[in-house]
Description:
This protein is mainly α. The protein has helices spanning about 5-10, 35-50, 60-70. It has three helices and no strands.
Amino acid sequence: MTIEQTLDRPAAAKVETFGDNEDICPICGKPHIPNAETLAAIAEGRAIMRGEIPGTWYKTREEFWKSLEED
C-alpha cells in the first residue's frame, strides 16, 4: 500500500488488507488478521498523516525517549 492510498482512506475506515499479497502474512503464509489495537493505531497514523491529528516531531533521539518515559 502506498502513502497516497493510505491518505485516501478515511481515519475510521476498516483496514482489511496489507502489502502486495493482500491478506497473506509474508513470513508465515497464513492470513493476517490484525487485532483492534493495531487497527486503531493504523487509523490514528493515517489521521496524523492527513493532518487531522497533530503529530509530534523530535529534534533528537534523547528528546523522543524522554517523552516516552513521561507517558
